[in-house]
Backbone:
């Protein structure tokens, strides 16, 4: 038996942000809009507030989300929510503002949530998950709470056309990681398999185009759909080893989540391959490979490496991380990865020694 959890309503299409005002107005009268300064400066937040003005919904804007959210940022946003008398939360931006919106809602008696992604990657608009870093310990906490699944998700591909290449690459690889991990998770279901394969095919077909030409609206649309599909996947089948190992890198070395996923994905999936060779073969066949299970799985890994090269995913060293500092933190990272629970969803058993071995392999040429 399995169940399917999804947002209460999802609106998809060009300029959906302008069409969502009636749905938003039915959720509350004063919104706390959580975003980032770059998204605000781009004019995207104004598109939202113009729509809210037309609907007669008042709002307060909070843009002090700097990178991935920590407990201090969330506390500051919650204080504004209380002070301004807000009764709903709108997260507009990448995964960080959306996760922050979920955290504020959870701390406010589960105020209604509207999520509007401006990047195609986190899939937060479709999930019960959010991450907040515990500032005192530099530990990135994954929180699971069905009550933070948004009442409304608005997917408007026009909002992502200004995203720079680095963000497009990072978020696109996050979406791909979600889809592949969900497909190879112990919790995979026939329903999530459909979404996962669809998302994987979209990413391989359209991420290079979105990376090379951000104004390519068809590529942006397909990537927005891939991110949402992959979000639905992890909402119901969860993530596995890649995410478990990625979060500590992000928390301790401030690497964007999608980039740390991309740094890890090939090595983590190669570790898991013999636990579910047929699943990796199915991905390879979905991408056009033919032959035995091993040949099709191998073809998938070649395609994955080629994609990472095309969108210029850096190594840890190229990103500027100090090798000695990384090795000093490695034991804590392995403990944090296991404690998150995500590696336990991997179809092959994962030990701390396995995680340490994979972390070390990131430094091999």
Residues:
């Amino acid at each position: 038996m399995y169940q399917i959890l999804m947002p209460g309503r999802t609106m998809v299409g060009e300029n959906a942000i302008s069409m969502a005002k009636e749905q938003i107005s039915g959720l509350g009268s004063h919104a706390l809009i959580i975003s980032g300064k770059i998204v605000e400066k781009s004019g995207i937040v104004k598109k939202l507030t113009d729509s809210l003005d037309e609907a007669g919904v008042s709002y307060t804007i909070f843009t002090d989300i700097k990178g991935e959210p920590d407990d201090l940022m969330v506390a500051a946003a919650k204080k504004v929510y209380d002070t301004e008398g807000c009764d709903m939360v709108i997260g507009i931006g990448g995964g960080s503002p959306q996760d922050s919106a979920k955290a504020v809602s959870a701390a406010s008696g589960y105020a209604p949530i509207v999520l509007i992604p401006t990047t195609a990657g986190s899939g937060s608009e479709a999930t019960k998950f959010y991450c907040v870093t515990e500032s005192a310990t530099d530990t990135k906490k994954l929180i699971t709470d069905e009550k933070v699944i948004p009442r409304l998700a608005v997917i408007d591909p026009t909002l992502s056309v200004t995203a720079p290449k680095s963000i497009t690459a990072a978020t696109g690889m996050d979406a791909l990681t979600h889809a592949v991990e969900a497909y190879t998770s112990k919790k995979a279901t026939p329903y999530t398999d459909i979404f996962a394969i669809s998302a994987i095919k979209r990413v391989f077909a359209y991420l290079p185009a979105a990376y090379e030409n951000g104004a390519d609206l068809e590529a942006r649309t397909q990537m927005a759909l891939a991110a949402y599909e992959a979000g639905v996947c992890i909402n119901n089948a969860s993530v596995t080893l890649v995410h478990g190992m990625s979060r500590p890198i992000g928390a301790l070395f401030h690497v964007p989540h999608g980039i740390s996923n991309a740094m890890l994905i090939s090595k983590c999936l190669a570790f898991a391959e013999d636990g579910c060779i047929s699943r990796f073969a199915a991905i390879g066949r979905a991408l056009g490979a033919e032959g035995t299970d091993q040949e099709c799985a191998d073809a998938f890994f070649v395609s994955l490496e080629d994609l990472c090269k095309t969108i210029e995913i850096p190594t840890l060293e190229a990103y500027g991380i100090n090798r000695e500092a990384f090795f000093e933190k490695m034991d804590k990272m392995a403990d944090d990865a296991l404690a998150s629970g995500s590696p336990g969803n991997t179809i092959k058993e994962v030990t701390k020694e396995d995680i340490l071995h994979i972390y070390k392999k990131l430094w091999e040429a």
